[in-house]
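Quick question, first post here. What does this chain look like in 3D?
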Amino acid sequence: MTPELEEIDLGTVPLGRTGLRTSELQFGTWRFGRVTEAGNVEIDEDRAHELLDAYETAGGRYIDTADVYGGGDCERWIGDWLAERDRERYTVASKVYWQIRDGDPNSRGTNRKNVRHRVDALLDRLDTDYIDVLYIHRWDDETPARELMKTLNGLVESGKVHYLGASTLRPNAWKVARANEIARGEGWEPFTVLQPRYNLVDREVEGDYLEFARQRNLAVSPWSPLGQGFLTGKYDRDADLPDDSKAAESTRFQEAYLTEENFDVHDELDAVADEVGASAAQTALAWLAHRDGVTAPIVGARTVDQLRENLAAATIDLSDEQVDRLTAAKPGPYDEL
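> Answer (accepted):
Ran it through. Tokens below.
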């Protein structure tokens, strides 16, 4: 039985070497104001505030967003919500990178002009003087690492940003390492928080990326911890796709996730979930939280009930044997090395 929000009481864990502590499950807001391929808005402002209320009730204090989520509405809604609270009690992270103006190539990437403008704009939308963590949403190979780190350090020195992070779709530990080496040599602020995609079926970061993070004591906050909903149990290999599912609207999702190999992983996930009396989603999140090097997964939801179920993963305790079984269900890319 899933506990009530008041009974979950999320704990905190160290955010790498920053000195900050983060909620053991961070709240991701990428669905706020998002328009789907079918033209539907996933979460409007009223529901966004309901979800933020629910996260707060469960003890959560770490809010993850980006300046492109909902075309900027996501940050505005978070800012309106925070305006009625003590800003210092919450850790807010945002991201910059993706193009925001058609026909303007300089409104994309991590060039100094774009980053400075974007940070000023997101602070205005959030109605705050600073953000706790600024991520580059993806790596920009057209901007030299030295230029990037000098720009980001300037934002830290100005007080607009406290810590720096890097989000990624593919492992890029060497790029972060190179940038941090430049920063250390110049006495600048390095990246201290990493945000990769990581879950039971997306295992690309296992190996060098996680090992690098562990060795350097960098925080790792994975996004898509439920494989874009695949690990929630809503899909069946022999059944039609649910009409309201992501898979029904995205052929790319079907090709990436609805494979025999991934359904085999889900079979093991269901078995362990039954053993611990939890849902598939809760068990998948608990597995991720048990992984060496992972700091705090980022969870999201469309409804308060879904969020409550996901946050209850913090109450699930898996044995070492169960963690090992889930890990072995789909070997990572480096298992043979």
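Residues 204 and 333 are 6 Å apart (CA to CA).
Residues 260-276 form the longest helix (17 residues).
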